[in-house]
Amino acid sequence: MERILSYRDAVREATAQEMARDPSVIVLGMGVTDFEGVYGTTQGLAQQFGGDRVFDTPVAEEGMTGIAIGAALAGLRPVHVHIRMDFLLLAMNQLVNVAAKARYMYGGAVSVPLVVRAIVGRSWGQGAQHSQGLQSLFMHIPGLRVVAPTTPYDAKGCLIRAIRDDDPVIFIEHRMLHMHRGHVPDTAYEVPFGKARVLAPGRDITLVGISYMAVEALRARALLAESGIDAEVIDPVSLSPLDSDTIVGSAARTGALLVVDNGWTNCGASAEIVARTAERLQGQTPIRLQRIGFAPVTCPTAKNLESLFYPDAPRIAAAAHMLVRGVAASWPSASRAAELVEFRGPF
Amino acid sequence: MNSVPSAASFYRALRRIRRVEEEIARVYPTDAIQSPIHLSIGQEAISVGVCEALEPADVVFGTYRSHALYLAKGGDLNRMIAELYGRATGCAHGKGGSMHLIDVEHGVLGASAVVGTTIPLSVGYACALRLTRRPAVVASFFGDGAADQGVFHESLSFAALKRLPILFVCENNHYAIHSPLAARQPLDNIADRPAIYGIPAVTIGDGDVLTIHGAARHAVAEIRSGGGPRFIECVTCRWKQHVGPGDDFAAGYRSRAEAEAWFNRDSVRMLGAGLDQGTRAAIDADVDAEIRDAFALAERSPYPDEDALYADLPGGS
To answer: CB A66 to CB B315 under 8 A?
Structure first.
């Protein structure tokens, strides 16, 4: 029988299994030992592995990131947890100037086996500083790998892969995915970086959905089916390295690519994917290209404005319809995602 | 702990560093070294005094002004000069330059071009030593400019909280590039600050290598016996310009007069003067020969292969 687990439990299980396997794995971050355990993703780890290996930290993101990197230089494998990705902005010097560069600028003399878990918030008025999907900032930097798994299966496998990696990995998890459930084997398995996952096959258009937007893209696919449009949905899983081959191959077949990011489009992950596809297919294959993402504003808190800020299944379907058919179509906003409707704050 | 090194031994260490940097400064106008050099000349006694109190297994982290620290901790001279020359045989294979010296085998865990950046790395390393029950200690070197940074406080606070085996060494030369301490900080010293985190601190005001060494031995012994972090502020003087081979007293932001006092109590010269002529001459000759060889070796060493551009990138290209 299939083993069904939530995303949050998959993250927790991956961490626990790696900690049991390798005594050099440690977990640190604000709240990792408290009664909530970062939405349950670190629950019980301190009890199981002790306070030396699982510990709470001061509210000092730059300092603690440097400390995690220093521990990694000494041979540990820290998993540094941030309950909001926005907080990584305080740690950019350490992440960009040290974690990403140490191995290269020291000619291979050291490496930094660090995992940074970054949770992207949404809903219940998370607003300007609790909702940012900053993946493109990290994708820009050589030396940082960036993964944003969507399914519980990939969450577990990517986290195990990240912990075992000798180099730094930014592991992005969307708050709305934590309660998603799916097939998760109980063994410790790795999901390789740089391999996209085709979540659903299709002939007419390629929808690439990043992180939580892969879920919305799947919903859009169902809406598009009502119009007889057959959409292929691809989850890149790993943003850096990026599996261009799978995405470009699909776009070449369908003739249309719509990239949906849980982030801004300007210089964003979606811009990179569209650019790579255009570079590869120009002059060879007729291709229609588009990207959608956050509205180009700061995330507002009023529910109606917040709903406009994010791409959703109806808007993704409408954009796809226009790309495929060249005419507008619309779907009622009533088809909004259940987890967004059901989510209750405060956090 | 080892016994206190002899005066001759201190002299050798200091003289060697001084002469290496003088040679770097001499060669620099030829453009053979195309790397921003931040000379330690005038500040060598701090690295030597502290590192002579450390064991080989102990670890240091430094700043972009770390030629002295690298050599004092036992970093390989040939590989350092080759690194400055951008050669494949350099300590970072020609990819780090003067500001990113490293020699893991000898406990030199790197240096950063960004002020304050290695302080938390040092603390994290000490944290890992504790966790893995290794007996070594970490010495974290930084300047007074680093005490401007928030991460200085974050790092001290955490080190104190966890009572980590770390020695903080502040080289206070009163200038961050050209900005004087008085324009940047409300206090005229650094050592009062560790006290608010419960870290015992001392200030060595005169740059004397033996005084610094004594303070470091004492601090390291306390750290090794589980006393938690210690802090030494060493007041010093940067004889040369912030970056580059010359001096800059004509620039107007500081006077030669304030440096004169430091010229007059130069540890290199004073220790040398206390040795007998023969001992001193032998050390000088040894040191000069080693340096000559290192520069000659760097000159004839190969540049990195072009495919090295993509080597050692975390995660691959």
So the answer is: no
Answer yes or no: do B120 and A67 touch at CB < 8 A.
yes
Chain A contacts of B314, Cβ < 8 Å? 99-100, 102-104, 111-112, 143-145, 167-168
Q: What is the pLDDT of residue A335?
A: 56
Q: Decide if pLDDT at B1 tops 80.
A: no
Q: Which fold has domain B7-304?
A: Rossmann fold (3.40.50)
How far are the Cα atoms of B84, B139, B171, B202, B215 from residue B220, in angstroms, in the given order? Answer: 32, 9, 17, 13, 9
**Per-residue model confidence (pLDDT) at position A183:** 96
- Residues B103-159 have pLDDT tens digits of 999 999 999 999 999 999 999 999 999 999 999 999 999 999 999 999 999 999 999
- Burial group, residue A255, by CB count within 10 angstroms (0-12, 13-18, 19+): middle
- pLDDT beyond 50 at B317: no
Residues in chain A closer than 8 A to B313 (CB atoms): 103-104, 142-143
User: Mind giving me the DSSP string for A131-173?
Assistant: ----HHHHHTSTT-EEE---SHHHHHHHHHHHHH-SS-EEEEE
In this predicted structure, which of A321-335, B103-117, B172-186 has the lowest mean pLDDT? A321-335
Smallest CA–CA distance from A145 into chain B, residue: B315
Hey, what CATH class is A4-183 in? alpha beta
Residues of chain B positioned with their CB less than 8 A from the CB of A74: 124-125, 127-129, 132
Domain residue spans of chain A: 4-183, 197-342
B88 to chain A, closest Cα gap in Å: 9
DSSP A39-79: TTTTTTHHHHH-TTTEE---S-HHHHHHHHHHHHHTT-EEE
Q: What is the ipTM of this complex?
A: 0.97
Detail the DSSP E strand segments found in chain A.
4-6, 25-29, 54-55, 77-82, 115-120, 145-147, 169-174, 181-183, 197-200, 205-209, 231-235, 238-240, 256-264, 288-294
Considering the domain delimited by A197-342, tell me its CATH architecture: 3-Layer(aba) Sandwich (3.40)
- At A259-306, the pLDDT tens digits run 999 999 999 999 999 999 999 999 999 999 999 999 999 999 999 999
Q: Specify the DSSP class assigned to residue B103.
A: B
Cα angle: A346, vertex A157, A238; to 5 degrees: 80
The pLDDT, as a whole number, for residue A334 is 61
User: Is the pLDDT reported for residue B189 higher than 90?
Assistant: yes
